């Protein structure tokens, strides 16, 4: 369940995205429709302002909400493309039901880490990401915390699942946020795992890819062939020693060069 701050930020992000897309429509919606969306935006901006005055981290909530909104939109585009490939003569599609669920599971579902592994770089309570390993729960050795305060606050929810173990489990694959935390430096000895959900390439292969948290960033091929062998919609991409990249168009993710290919594994079901 989202917190009240997260819920307000999600509604705010929906309004921001709706207004942006309405500006691009031809013909444009009526001024009345625009004003309804502007009012919706103003209402949730005011809610977020009040939360900020109370000391809540509104900026992080807004940033996460915009990321989720972007990922949801890309998923809808990817689903429409998948349905078009499956039914090339059909112009309208119903989202929902067994067929679209099957396509989602095959092509768009976030990669799942192996069970029993631990996320050692993200606080389970506040979701703060660290470039270095966080302190783990000494009892179960599965969840990690950025501070003692977060561990104390999370104990009520965690204690039922906290089972003592002797051996520390292996780490889960990295997420986009965990790679970004290294500020474009390679994350040596660690692996990023993402699923390609959409093909946007023209001159080179460019694919939005989703991590296990549902965050979507772009993977672009800057190697000699301008493509990554075997990579297609639905593929899992595993990249050892990954590094984050900020593209000139404002997007971000991974720039794959020729020397990186030896560290990349593509898995197709």
TrEMBL record:
Q: What is its main location?
A: membrane
Enzyme Commission number(s) of this protein: 2.7.1.182
Q: Which GO terms describe its molecular function?
A: phytol kinase activity; zinc ion binding
Which segments constitute the MYND-type domain?
123-162
Q: Which GO terms describe its cellular component?
A: chloroplast; membrane
Instruction: Give one Pfam family, short name only.
Output: zf-MYND
Which catalysed reactions does the entry list for this protein? Answer: phytol + CTP = phytyl phosphate + CDP + H(+)
Identify this protein by name.
Answer: phytol kinase
Q: Which organism is it from?
A: Nitzschia inconspicua
UniProt KW keywords: Chloroplast, Kinase, Membrane, Metal-binding, Plastid, Transferase, Transit peptide, Transmembrane, Transmembrane helix, Zinc, Zinc-finger
Location within or outside the cell: Membrane; Plastid, Chloroplast
Asked if the keyword Nucleotide-binding belongs to this entry, the reply reads: no
Its UniProt pathway annotation is: Cofactor biosynthesis; tocopherol biosynthesis
Q: Which family does it belong to?
A: Belongs to the polyprenol kinase family.
The family database entries (InterPro entries) matched by this protein are listed as:
Phytol/farnesol_kinase (IPR039606), Znf_MYND (IPR002893)
What is this entry's stated membrane topology? Multi-pass membrane protein
